[in-house]
């Protein structure tokens, strides 16, 4: 699917018209610079290949990632586009599948002639897609949480500037768990790369706080019923740490409540287990008083910023994190901000680099690598961030919320410093 830019652009120089087959869009030519009119800018749109989970286990995320990205691009175009050119999203479904993800990246480069690629959430798709992006020399901006980029396992063409990775997240939140909920933890996580990151990094983080993980329970990503796994939870467990994704998350949390009843250990969930799920759904009453990590608070808080208000309005999300058109249509609010913020970072990077076309891709990557602090703003409504150009990873605030009267209320906000860790790679030393 191609999302055409909707905004009107101001005449600054010679007005050009796109070919009728691509939709007529009037856009600006660049003002003459020091080198004169020879450098006049094309009116052709900047094409961003959007790798989106329309089908597969990531479909709920994909639908909201698409909605958020379309809203972000509309805002960018309403403000004049990038370097005076409109932005066009070219969306392709990756099926939440790594092989298909690589094929989509190929299509962006060779068929659609996109300037860059953008997406996606699920770590195994990023792992499958990044090598092809590197081979094609196509900048690939991912909106994921896996530790794949900062680990050094990928390449210079892959960047994760808009959302914090799981290593940073759990490092920042482990002290709260150990100091407030308990030190003996059972982990329940999906049996693929993202879940393995949680397993490895949270285990290390809780041990650093004097705690221990007494049991690891890995769940196959295709599983649809979970009760058979719960008897493996040891009696000495003080905290159940759960992170599940996909269409079966509602079943998971319901069955967890049915298994324990009112006498459960403390429960700390990554919001992945509840993304796109209405807290008021029947069978979720047991979640009252339990805790969740949120990347971005679903419910508007008492100290809500003007930036969060503007972002919700642009995407069409109400104060409960649901669609303004349908209160039952709950968003993936904790994650989807990454699309909004990454697209704004792409805009900033292209403008800094004076991006004109594929010949400037290296300049774009270098411009993003040079970024550091990203203050709270309409461009970054989730909160301030600090980007590490060497590791291609950003660091931001995390929110620990408690379910209270059916709403997620923030009880603790981590600092950026809480999530920092030593560099494992320096991508800036790699050649293009």
Q: Any overview of this molecule?
A:
With 432 residues, the chain is of the alpha/beta class. It has 2 domains: 2-164 and 336-395, Response regulator (Rossmann fold, 3-Layer(aba) Sandwich); 167-301 and 398-419, Response regulator (Rossmann fold, 3-Layer(aba) Sandwich). It has 9 helices and 20 strands. The protein has helices spanning 59-78, 98-110, 123-136, 166-180, 193-208, 249-260, 306-315, 333-353, 361-369; strands at residues 2-3, 16-17, 26-27, 46-52, 87-93, 116-118, 140-141, 158-164, 184-190, 212-219, 239-242, 266-270, 291-294, 322-323, 326-330, 373-374, 385-388, 393-396, 399-404, 407-413. The strands form 4 sheets. The chain has a 9-stranded mixed β-sheet with strand order 1-5-4-6-7-8-18-17-16, sandwiched between helices. Strand 19 (399-404) and strand 20 (407-413) form a beta hairpin. The chain is globular. The two termini are 30 Å apart.
Summarize the structure.
The chain is an alpha/beta fold and 432 residues long. Helix content is 30%, strand content 21%. The strands form four sheets. It has a nine-stranded mixed sheet, with helices on both faces. A seven-stranded mixed sheet has the order 10-9-11-12-13-19-20, with helices on one face.
Estimate the mean pLDDT confidence: 90
How many angstroms does the end-to-end distance come to? 30 Å
Could you say which structural class the secondary elements and strand pairing correspond to?
Answer: alpha/beta
**The level-1 CATH class of the largest domain:** Alpha Beta
Radius of gyration, in Å, reads 22 Å
Number of strands: 20
